[in-house]
User: Which sequence fits this backbone?
């Protein structure tokens, strides 16, 4: 029995040696094929040479962008009829103007959204990928007021104007809010404009424009001299003059009745505490441009 096992040992070693040679040949062939693919050498007939993954991905991206561009060029923004009808009832715009404003809204949000994202990305080490497209945020809206309406007022007032438009109070001015707000700025009656400006100047929404609020609004409108002992003294004097002029019931604060009565008597007092309305010329030009929006 022992002699039989002793004869099997060389045979098993020989078989293992043959297997090893066969595996080496297969491995060498595979390595040669892989090397040829990398170097660009022609592969033997019957084998298939696949293009590099980078080339495939690049072509896929190009096709995807081309298809996306074609699709976007064919698709036009859909404006629901009930959306236009509701805004027609709520605002002073015609239906044609509302349709034009809807188209303009999407274009302006894309423009100011891209500018806002670029500005923030430039100040940050993290690249921003998405652009807000659902409406105007505070920074975008401030740029819109300045560029489209020439309202270059203090930040405290632009924030108040933003809050007037942002009826949902969610930090974004949506399409319907934008159109409703513009109705007051561009086509509002005298009463609507008086209510609007009073709301802007009533900083804490308590129904009164207080002496402190007037001081905050007028503080940056006067030129201050460094040599003055009290740079704010002139502002306080101006506040006292305004109150004597507009405070009809002498309670040291302006109610809506005080403000409205004063503005009706003297229309220049409508924006007494800072610009928050576009000029008549700018308003007319903006309205004329609405109908030409594609």
Assistant:
């Amino acid at each position: 029995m022992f002699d039989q096992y002793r004869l099997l040992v060389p045979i098993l070693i020989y078989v293992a040696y043959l297997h090893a040679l066969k595996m080496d040949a297969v491995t060498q062939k595979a390595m040669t094929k892989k090397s040829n693919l990398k170097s660009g050498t022609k592969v033997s007939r019957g084998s298939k040479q696949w293009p590099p993954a980078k080339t495939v991905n690049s072509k896929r991206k190009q096709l995807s962008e081309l298809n996306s561009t074609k699709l976007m060029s064919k698709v036009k923004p859909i404006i629901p009829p009930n959306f236009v009808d509701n805004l027609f009832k709520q605002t002073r715009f015609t239906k044609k103007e509302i349709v034009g404003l809807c188209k303009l809204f999407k274009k302006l949000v894309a423009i100011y959204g891209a500018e806002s994202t670029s500005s923030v990305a430039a100040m940050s080490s993290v690249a921003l990928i998405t652009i807000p497209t659902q409406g105007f945020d505070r920074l975008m809206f401030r740029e819109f007021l300045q560029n489209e309406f020439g309202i270059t007022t203090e930040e405290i007032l632009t924030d108040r104007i933003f809050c007037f438009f942002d009826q949902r109070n969610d930090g974004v001015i949506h399409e319907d809010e934008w159109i409703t707000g513009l109705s007051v700025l561009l086509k509002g009656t005298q009463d609507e404009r008086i209510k609007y400006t009073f709301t802007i100047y009533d900083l804490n929404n308590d129904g009164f424009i207080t002496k402190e609020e007037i001081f905050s609004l007028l503080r940056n409108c006067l030129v201050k001299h460094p040599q003055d002992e009290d740079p704010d003294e002139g502002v306080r004097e101006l506040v006292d003059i305004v109150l004597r002029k507009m405070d009809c019931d002498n309670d040291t604060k302006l109610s809506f009745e005080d403000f409205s009565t004063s503005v009706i008597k003297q229309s220049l007092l409508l924006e007494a505490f800072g610009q928050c309305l576009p000029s008549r010329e700018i308003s007319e030009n903006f309205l004329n441009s609405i109908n030409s929006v594609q």
Residues 1-27, 33-51, 63-75, 118-132 have pLDDT under 50 and may be disordered.
